[in-house]
Amino acid sequence: MFSRASMLALIFAVAAAGGIRGNTCSSEAHPVPTPNPPQTGDVRAVELGGGVKLDLVWIPPGEFVMGSSFDEDGRAPMESFRHPVRLTRGFWMGRYPVTQEQWERVTGGNPSYTKGPSLPVEQVNWSDCQNFLQQINSILESGHLTAALPTEAQWEYACRAGTQTRYYLGDNVHDLDRTGWFSGNSGYKPHPVGQKEKNKFGLHDMHGNVWQWCQDWMDAYPRTPSVDPTGPDSGNARVLRGGSWGSDQDACRSACRFCYPPDYRIITAGLRIVAMVDPKEVRKN
Questions:
Q1: Is residue 78 part of a domain?
Q2: Which residues pair with residue 44 across a beta bridge?
Q3: Cα first-last separation, the chain
Q4: 59 inside domain
Q5: Which of 160, 276, 164, 178 has the alpha carbon at shortest distance from 228?
Q6: Which three-class secondary structure state does DSSP give residue 55?
């Protein structure tokens, strides 16, 4: 019997070839690996100045099934169709949502409604996030990294960390209680980042606390396998993922999708960054 990983590999191989073809032989050069490439869960600290750091965790390339099954509790129609996704490049991702201390250090201001240095920044819209990233990139230049919001596929892949359950620790509300702040345990307020259990990649607060903006415009999923998807070229609303301290258990699922216009600010929405490695400097592991 094929494993899920084997079946995914077969689906991508057939899709890339346009069907089943006869036997062929080829000779190809194999790249020489870069010494000491980052490994899954490695942490890289970005110095923002004034003793403030932003921790990034290495997420390896890989494959997963995006979306939710028709029998998943709490699913919504926009989570169809489940489809295989391959991410060909690893990336660094914020271990936590961006905090108010980090945002203020970079931008000089703090738009959050509920103040606290270790609380996630909120009341930021998608455009605010782009301005923050532009300033972060001036810091990252010497490290051969480029910061961005995660694509929706990167976000779900990183959240699941190899799982297909509603949450990365399981399917029931008790599993959510261990991993995130939501309406059932938050007291209807945000909490300092990193207090709940991490996933297998080493990420915290992927469920609840604050919604996290993604790079993509919202649209229906494709019905075919995707490789490094970035969403549609245009739209009316940008994707948010993860749920918040005010969300119910269904909105905090790994597969849940939400969206707002890019200029919309709300006290439950923040961000988490990714940083892509310059392929000229470090090959994917």
A1: no
A2: 56
A3: 28
A4: no
A5: 276
A6: strand
- Secondary structure letter of residue 32 according to DSSP: P
In a domain, 81, yes or no: no
Q: Which domain holds residue 105?
A: 98-285
Whole-angstrom distance, CA of residue 93 vs CA of residue 147: 9
DSSP one-letter code for 151: P
In this structure, what token pair is assigned to residue 123?
A: 């009341």
Tell me what pLDDT residue 9 has: 53
Structure token digits, residue 164: 């297909």
pLDDT at 140 (0 to 100): 86
From residue 77, give the alpha-carbon distance in Å to each of 81, 82, 157, 172, 243: 9, 11, 20, 21, 17
Distance from chain centroid for Cα 135: 20
Q: Looking at the domain assignment, is residue 45 inside a domain?
A: no
CA distance 102 to 114: 15
The pLDDT tens digits along the chain (285 residues) read: 445 555 455 445 444 444 433 333 334 445 444 457 899 999 999 999 999 999 999 999 999 999 999 999 999 999 998 999 999 999 999 999 999 999 999 999 999 999 999 999 999 999 999 999 999 999 887 768 999 999 999 999 999 999 999 999 999 999 999 999 999 999 999 999 999 999 999 999 999 999 999 999 999 999 999 999 999 999 999 999 999 999 999 999 999 999 999 999 999 999 999 999 875 544 444
Rounded Cα gap, residues 157 and 151, in angstroms = 10
Number of helices (H), then strands (E), belonging to the chain: the values are 5, 12
Can you give the CATH number for the domain in which 267 is found? Answer: 3.90.1580.10
C-alpha 2/C-alpha 220 separation (Å) is 29
Q: Can you read off the two tokens belonging to residue 218?
A: 């919202």
Total domains in the chain come to 1
Burial of residue 73 (number of CB atoms within 10 Å: 0-12, 13-18, 19+): exposed
Residue 55 near residue 235, CB atoms below 8 Å: no
